[in-house]
Each structure stands twice: as structure tokens, then as C-alpha cells.
TrEMBL record:
Keywords: Oxidoreductase, Peroxidase
Keyword GTP-binding among UniProt keywords: no
Listed InterPro entries: Glutathione_peroxidase, GPX_AS, Thioredoxin-like_sf
Protein name per the record: Glutathione peroxidase
Origin organism lineage: Bacteria, Bacillati, Cyanobacteriota, Cyanophyceae, Oscillatoriophycideae
Cross-referenced PANTHER family: GLUTATHIONE PEROXIDASE (PTHR11592:SF78)
Gene Ontology MF annotations: peroxidase activity
Annotated transmembrane regions: none
Entry superkingdom: Bacteria
Annotated organism of origin: Aphanothece cf. minutissima CCALA 015
Protein family: Belongs to the glutathione peroxidase family.
Amino acid sequence: MAVNVSDVVVRTAAGQERRLGEWAGQVLLIVNVASRCGFTRQYAGLQALQDRFGPRGFAVLGFPCNDFGAQEPGTLEEIQQFCSTTFGVGFELFDKVHATGSKTAPYDTLTQAEPAGDVAWNFEKFLIGKDGTVVARFKSAVEPDGAELTAAIEKALAA
């Protein structure tokens, strides 16, 4: 069954609630991020994806998560500062979430998409089509500039 995230409400870093449906018509890459992880360097690649595909209706949405190895212990302000100064991150970072255990939005919905199951680690990526449905899921080790991911983004943008 196709999982649609359009009605999922998430909390921005400023504490405002937003429906993911506000991004209807855009392709989204939702990523649980962490500042002290072996995959943290992927922030640079995620920003490169935002720069490359953003003008075509693509957005990276980052959700800081401290569930895996306590690798995102900072406050939102600390996280934003780190991402901005270290990696030049300009894509939107949201309030901290739980991607495992007592999951919070958007992960309570995302993890129902096939292949269903808990997020395994930081920097797992969910690709959302223009209609709000989850079209692909990529494990942490899939690099942002990997052919598998960029091809899936291209396909979703062309749909």
C-alpha cells in the first residue's frame, strides 16, 4: 500500500506546526540527521542535492534525531549553528524527532512504507513524490550523490 505523508504534521525548528502537504507538487527527501555520526559528512552532499535539484521543485527536509548512539545531543540552536558553519546547510531543519521506539512525526508514518520497519540509523532517506507518497527509501550508507539516489530523484521530478 502506498503511504502518503501529506496530512502528517511536523514541528519546525521555530516550534510551528506544518503539514507536509504544504510541499505538494515538490519532491522531498526526508532525512533523520545527526551532528556526531560517521555519516554526518553527508550534510554536505544533502546541501549539494538541494542546490542541484531545488530549482526544479525539490527540497531536503532534515529532522535532527538523537535516537542512534546519542549522536545529536545538542539544542536546535546548536545543531543549526553547526550545520550552517560546518557544512553551509541552507535546507530546512525541523524540531528533533524520534525515528525509532515511540516514533514521532513524520517517522510514525514513513516507517509504514514498504519496505516497512524502523529506521536503522542516522541519515536514512525517504524520497517523497510530488503527490506526497513515499516512492523510495535509502539506508544510511547510500551517499547523497550516489547514482541510485540521484536517479530516483530525477525520476520523481520527471513524474
